[in-house]
């Protein structure tokens, strides 16, 4: 099985409530501070609390394909951060 650093593999216990997760297919980022209003996800909803039916709003892929965005993402993106 192919795994990536940061892939949570469906294990919600690895997620912190304020973790942002990025879709590895289309690079949409779920930010719990913003939620996903289009799918009735209120701001402040942790990724781990998203309902089973929730898929990526952009490409429709499953939650398991999301990667945890490192906390230093904001600081590093100017220096060429790329998700591995
Ligand atoms: Zn996507």
Q: What attributes characterize this protein structure?
A:
84 residues; little secondary structure; 10% strand; binds zinc ion; 3 strands; globular
Furnish the topology, listing elements before pairings:
Blueprint: E1 21-23, E2 29-30, E3 66-68, H1 73-76
Antiparallel strand pairs: 1-2, 1-3
Bound molecules: zinc ion.
CATH architecture: Single Sheet
CATH classification class? Mainly Beta
**Biggest sheet overview:** 3 strands, antiparallel
Poorly predicted runs are none
Shape: globular
Bound molecules: zinc ion
Provide the spatial order of strands within the biggest beta sheet.
Answer: 2-1-3
Class of secondary structure makeup:
little secondary structure
Please, what is the average pLDDT? 83
- Count of domain modules: 1
Radius of gyration: 12 Å
Q: In angstroms, what separates the terminal alpha carbons?
A: 16 Å
Keywords: Electron transport, Iron, Metal-binding, Transport
Pfam family, one: Rubredoxin
Organism: Parasutterella muris
Cofactor: Fe(3+)
Give an overview in words.
The protein has a single domain, classed as Rubrerythrin, domain 2. Helix content is 5%, strand content 10%. The longest helix has 4 residues, at 73-76. The chain has 84 residues and is largely without helices or strands. It has one helix spanning 73-76; strands spanning 21-23, 29-30, 66-68. The two termini are 16 Å apart. The protein is globular and about 25 Å long.
């Amino acid at each position: 099985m192919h795994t990536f650093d940061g892939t949570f593999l469906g294990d919600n216990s690895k997620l912190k409530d304020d973790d942002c997760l990025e879709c590895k297919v289309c690079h949409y980022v779920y930010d719990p501070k913003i939620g996903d209003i289009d799918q009735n996800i209120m701001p402040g909803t942790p990724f781990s609390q998203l309902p089973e039916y929730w898929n990526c709003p952009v490409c429709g892929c499953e939650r398991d394909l999301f990667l945890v965005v490192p906390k230093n993402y904001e600081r590093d993106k100017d220096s060429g951060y790329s998700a591995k």
